[in-house]
Amino acid sequence: MKSASLSNQMTLLVLRDANQPVKQVRVSKPLIVAVPMVALLSISGLIVSMHINSNRTITQLEGQLQQQSIQFEAVVTDRDEAIQRLQNEVVTLSGQSKGMMDRMEKVVELEAELQEFINKYGTQGDLSNLSALSLDDTDSLGIGGEYIAVHDNEIDDLAKETGDDFREMNAMLDEMEKNIPVTLIRATQTQYSLTGNPSEWPTPSKRLTSSFGYRTDPFTGKAAFHSGIDISGKIGDPVYAAGAGQVLTTDRDSSHGKYIVIQHPDGLESWYLHLSDIDVSAGDIVTKGQTIGKVGNTGRSTGSHLHFEIVKQNKPIDPMPFLKQ
Ligand SMILES: [Zn+2]
């Protein structure tokens, strides 16, 4: 490029290719000055605008950063709250667990009582399912396995499930605590009505000398009603309670001699007559087979023997069907 000077104008020669003609461009002087000025101003403007832009970007970035920081703080606060909540859950659950263990122990005690009862009076029912409640620590043996991280919400769910399980188990224990004593009372009643049945032979001797019903009276020789059975025996032989019950009467008179009356369930009484000795008192609770007195020859009797009688609703009945049980 080549420039030529005229008065207020400049000529620019544009050389392109060797084979092509030279091009002349006439340009005014102020324009020559103006172009770089415009260029300079444009660049300055660009720089200023870039500066403004970068400031704006920095401000935006700062804003975003602040927002993120706030969000992060919120997340941290949430975490702290979650941890606090979980700790509270754990404390509550461990409290419930302690209460549950106490109640389990109580149920186990009741079960032991029931078991003792069964051991004493035979195994009529199957209570083996109760033994599943026995507390043992076999679960604590052989723990291991892969570590799998647990998320907060999973722990939350777990805590909730465990809480639900505890509530369910508590309800179950409520039911059992309520039922076992009732079962025990029923079992005692059943046992009493079974052992209360006057079915035990009342003295060691098995020699029956007179049966229940009409017979010839040994004193008058006339027909008379015999209200019980006579079992011969030596004076001083033990007399046993035929069934469990309560002693109603111990007395002596000219007809019965020394005698005992025991009350049993179902309105039954057993009578023991002509005794030489009485070992119990009215109001005593006696067990089946317990020695209550001694064979004698007191009252209207021709020799040492035991007169045994069963009375049902004030009426003597044949004792043999009972004794054959
Ligand atoms: Zn008799």
Gist?
This protein is an alpha+beta fold.
Give a written overview of the molecule.
The chain is an alpha+beta fold. It has three domains: 2-80, no CATH class; 82-128 and 152-195; 208-323, Glucose Permease (Domain IIA) (Distorted Sandwich), CATH 2.70.70.10. It is built from three helices and 15 strands. Strands 4, 7, 8, 9, 10, 11, 12, 13, 14 and 15 form a ten-stranded antiparallel β-sheet that branches. It has a three-stranded antiparallel β-sheet with strand order 1-2-3. α1 (29-121) runs parallel beside α2 (152-195). The protein is rod-shaped. The N and C termini lie far apart (145 Å). Mean pLDDT is 83; it is low at 1-6 and 123-139.
Percent of sequence in beta strands: 15-25%
Query: Class of the largest domain, according to the CATH hierarchy?
Result: Mainly Beta
Name given to the CATH architecture of the largest domain: Distorted Sandwich
CATH topology of the largest domain: Glucose Permease (Domain IIA)
Classified in CATH, the superfamily of the largest domain is Glucose Permease (Domain IIA)
Distance between the termini: 145 Å
Q: What is the H-and-E element order?
A: EEEHHEEEEEEEEEEEEH
The share of residues in helices is 40-55%
General shape? rod-shaped
Give start-end ranges of low-pLDDT stretches: 1-6, 123-139
Structural class: alpha+beta
Pfam families: Peptidase_M23
Domain M23ase beta-sheet core: 225-319
Keywords: Membrane, Transmembrane, Transmembrane helix
Transmembrane segments: 31-52
